[in-house]
Amino acid sequence: MLSVPRYYNRYILRPRGGTPATTKRNFAYPDLWPKQIPPQVIGLSSLSTLLALGRNQFTGSLPTEIGKLKNLGALDVSNNLLSGELPSGLGSCESLEALYLDGNFFSGSIPSSMKELRGIQYLDLSRNNLSGEIPQFFERFGNLKNLNLSFNQFWGVVPTSGIFKNATASSVAGNTRLCGGVATLRLPVCKPNESKGGGGLSRRMKLLISLVSGFSLLGFVVVLSLFLLGKKRKEAKSSNLVNSFLQVSYATLLKATEGFSSTNLIGVGAFGSVYKGILAEDRVVVAVKVFNMLHRGASKSFISECEALRNIRHRNLVKIVTACKY
Fold first, then answer.
1. With DSSP H G I counted as helix, E B as strand and the rest as coil, what are the percentages for the chain, rounded to 5?
2. In terms of DSSP H, where are the helices of the chain?
C-alpha cells in the first residue's frame, strides 16, 4: 500500500446548523449534508488551498464544474459512493498537487485532459472501476511522487519510465489484465502485438473495425446488386432477341416447302439447297436454305453468311427470319 498524505483534520466547508468535528467522517452532521456534491460548492473558483469531501456518502457523479477550481491545491473526494466517468474538466485544475478519487465507483477511462496536471504530486485512483490503458503521459509527470492505480480494470502494457520505474512509488495491483512493466511488479510478459489486456480492443479500434466492416459489406452489396442487375438485363435482352425471331419447327418448314419438293427448289449451292416455302399461318413467302452439315465447311459457310447478312443492308438481299436445326 502507498503512504499518501491525507488532510482529514482540515476543513474547508461547514454543514448548515453546526461546526465540523473530528469523527470517522469529515462532517459531523451527515443528515444536514446533501446526498450529492452541490455543483455550486465544487465550482467555487475562490478555493485555493484544499477541498476535503472524503469519507462521506456522496452519490452521483463528480460535477463538471470541477474545472473551475483552477487555483485549488488539493482535492479529496475519496471513500464516497461517487460513480460515472471522470469529467474532462479535471484537466483545468492546473494547480492541483494532490488528487484523491479512490474508494468510489468511477468507471470509464482516465480522461486525456489530465495530461495538463503537470504539477501533480499525489494521485490516487485506486479501488474504482476505471478501465482502458494506463495513459503514457503519467511517465512525463516530473513532480509525481505517488501514483496509485490499484484495484481497477485497467488493461494492456504498464509503462516503464518516469514514476513507473519505482515500484514503491506506484501501484497497479489488482488489475488482472495488465502485462509488462518493471520486473519487480512480476506481471505477465506481454504477447506480441498485444496492446489490450485479455485480447480486448480499444474503443477507437473497435470503431475503426466496425466502419471498415460496414463499408466492406456495403461495397459487396453494391457490387452484387450491380452484377445481378446486369445479369438480369442481359437475360432480358437475350430473351427479347430470341422472341424477336420467328419460332418455326422442322415440321412447319417441311409443310411450307411441300416436303422440300423439287418443284419448290430455287437453287443448289456448294453447301446446300434453297427452297421456296409458304408459311401456312400467315401465308408468308419465304426462302428456306437447307445446309448439308455433313459436307465439310458447311458450318463455316453458314456462319460466314450470317456475318455478311448482319453487316450488309441492300434491297436485293433478303434478311434472315429465323433458323432451326434437325
1. 30, 20, 50
2. 39-42, 203-244, 250-256, 298-311
User: Residue 141: which residues within 8 A CB-CB, separation 6 or more?
Assistant: 117, 118, 120, 162, 163
Look at the block and give the residue holding cell 488539493.
74
Terminus-to-terminus CA distance in the chain, angstroms? Answer: 98
Residue 247, classed as helix, strand or coil, is coil
Nearest to 11 by CA among 43, 56, 45: 56
Task: Summarize pLDDT for 4-17 with one digit per residue, the tens.
Answer: 455 443 334 433 33
> Biggest alpha carbon distance in the chain?
133
Q: How far apart are CA 179 and CA 191, in angstroms?
A: 9
Residue where the block lists cell 460548492: 41
Quote the radius of gyration of the chain (alpha carbons, Å).
Answer: 45
pLDDT tens digits, 180-199: 999 888 899 998 755 444 44
In sequence order, what are the residues at sequence separation of 6 or more whose Cβ sits closer than 8 angstroms to the Cβ of residue 166? none
Give the per-residue pLDDT at 59.
93
Convert 238-277 to b/e letters by CB count within 10 Å (16 or more is b): eeeeeeeebebeeebbeebbeeeeeebeeeeeebbbebbb
pTM for this prediction:
0.54
- Give CA separation, 245 vs 191, 237, 240, 302, in Å: 70, 13, 9, 17
